[in-house]
Amino acid sequence: MSALRVLAPVPGTVRAIGQVPDPVFAQEIVGPGVAIEPDHVGLLDAVAPCDGVVGALHPHAFAIEVDEGRSVLVHLGIDTVRLAGLGFTLHVQRGDTVRAGQRMVTWSPVDVAASGMPTVCPVVALQADAGAVTLDAAAGAHVAAGDPLLTWG
């Protein structure tokens, strides 16, 4: 299996996955990864972290199916499913082939924060072994969308 470079889907500050205020992510139940506290701006584009096919798609989250059974999940904020899509604009459809850096969803971290929900964005290698993922950006570092975030080897 070739190494998969996963890029930052949003600009912001890198956080350890264990700091995400949701046990499913913090305890790596769905897989290992990292999180980004997005820049707090009015509108923000979340981009594809890698090439692949849109497998799961919700206003607040999406998964890119890559190859050999690998999928990368991006979750925009925590508990944002409660917003029922309000404030999220989808730019792709399930089944679309996407390229790394392609705009997927536009959303507002400021509005999510105003709704009382955490804005942190987990980026997860779904069902991966913890040892298969290495971080390319250190916790506390600021990344731009498209910067190297992790490698899934």
TrEMBL record:
It is found in: Cytoplasm. The keyword Transport applies. Its main location: cytoplasm. Residues 22-127 form the PTS EIIA type-1 domain. PROSITE patterns: PTS_EIIA_TYPE_1 (PS51093), PTS_EIIA_TYPE_1_HIS (PS00371). Keywords: Kinase, Phosphotransferase system, Sugar transport, Transferase, Transport. GO terms for cellular component: cytoplasm. GO terms for biological process: phosphoenolpyruvate-dependent sugar phosphotransferase system. GO terms for molecular function: kinase activity. Pfam families: PTS_EIIA_1. The keyword Iron does not apply. This is PTS system, glucose subfamily, IIA subunit.
